[in-house]
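Final paragraph of the annual report: two paired records, presented back to back.
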Amino acid sequence: FVSDPGMNKSDFASQLAELSPKALMKDSEGMSSEVALTAAATRGGFGDDSWSIEPGALPKANKGHLILDEIDKGPDGFLNGLHSPLEGDQTLRVEKAGQEANLATRCGFLALGNPTEGRFDHNEPIPEQVDLHPALMSRFDLICTMQDSPDAETDREIGSGILDSIDESARVDHGELDLSEADTVTGEVPRDVMKAWVKLAREEITPLLSDEAKATLQEYYVETRQLNGEENEKPPATARTLVAGVRIAMA
């Protein structure tokens, strides 16, 4: 998820983390190297000189979700270790300080950040403004972008919402408003119910692809492969794109 600044990416991510049955949210800016994401070799303390493997964020998020914020502010190269853990059976194979381990990294992974120059340049292709290696970018099912474009009607609605929220909070503090008596939003889903839905979907539900779904996905894959032309051009999609389409269709 790559967007211009000031568009509430971090708030969106924190709300998403609260809705997940199991979520680990990390800030890339506070990471020293890729081992914070993968695994590190650590020596025991108190006279114990033996080495052990300390799992990083990806193994710790196994069977849940990892949300990685501010990926554009992490140390150089810290995303390089993600290629293998996000591939195939999603297993991280570690060999450090004479220790070996296979750590499962089967999690949903959301990364958030800003474009390479801080804001999107409307005159440049968007893919060139996302600072991810093409091989790593292909591991993601979706690359979502959001651009901050001025629009009087939209800006008026957003401004009204922000001001109403600030005013409501102030009136609660002054005892002029009791939120327990406020009208509830019709159709709102309580968070514990939403978390139960997500847990059930991940653990119990495996949709089957109909013949119609398979035909539609196959046609989408073939058409996407031709977008750059057939001669002397890199195809814009690989087989990973088709697998991503299957996961999205099942979701």
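The closing record of the year follows.
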Amino acid sequence: MYRPHGNATESGIRYLESLGDTDRRDGGKVYTPLHLVRFILDLAGYISDAPIETMPLLDPACGTGVFLEEALRRLGERTAALQGDLRFPQAGDAFLDAARRNVIGVDIDHNACCLAREVLARVGAELTGRPLPADYFATNIVEADFLGAEVVRPGGRLAILPPFDVVVGNPPYVATTRLGGPEKQALREAFHTASGRIDLYVLFFERGVGLLRTGGRLAFITPDKFLSSRSARPLRTLLRASGALRTLARFESHKVFRDAATVPCVTLFERAARQGLVELQRCAGNQTESGSVEVLKKTRLAAALVSGDDWAAVHPDIQRLAGRIRGLHATLDSVS
């Protein structure tokens, strides 16, 4: 097995480089750059100025722990602001107790889970100045299929039971065409959103939303196809019925992940909230570790954006113009 090298960023890059192309593709394993992680946590409100010591956080596809490491560092900043230097016993104990209660990851990859545990232990030792065994955060990282029933069953395998205040991450992008018949059928029976030609990230949305407390927030980076595809219509219906879409950050290019050619968006959803204005963000990013997410433009639109079957996610004036253009021309259905 590959051993961790430094932090979760380095571990993630080196671990993925050790895998074959087929393994990465079939498992939907894509490394998330740190600047994207920070952007997503900021959007979800998991910041050191918030009471994150009482906010359970879950990454349901944690890999080697890049989201969890950043969450742990922010929790350390928060605890230090409240109780002082983490190298003093009282403050260090408070930080470690909060971390073991509230920072949770799930992943199906055994090696990635081992790396994530070791990374968290290394960060905990760095922040507190005390030696921690590599398995100190063993129960924080659950080796399991997030889409499997054992993860969320009462009395099941999670170190902390739901609900969560924050669910964040980069779920796997795996079309069910890559899955076997029995596995695909099991998913269709277990998930309301498993309709048509589905992708696993759609199911991560459904289960993640179900684990949020009232007022809790989910922030995922995924392909933007779910906004308009026919197969994702049940997901859009579920999100409308379960709460409110708060922010949709869309990237202009597919050059966001260095090992995946997809045009992503970050979706911020709030459970059991009333739909109000939706903030659309037009973003630019890059594939480098020294990169950043640049928000080029922000537009606040009425709830009508997510009231229909198709979430075009563009300004209503553009939608009306597109409608007029379509009305002037025959469709392929009408001439075939």
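Residues 30 and 259 are 6 Å apart (CA to CA). This concludes the annual technical report; the extension proposal builds directly on these records.
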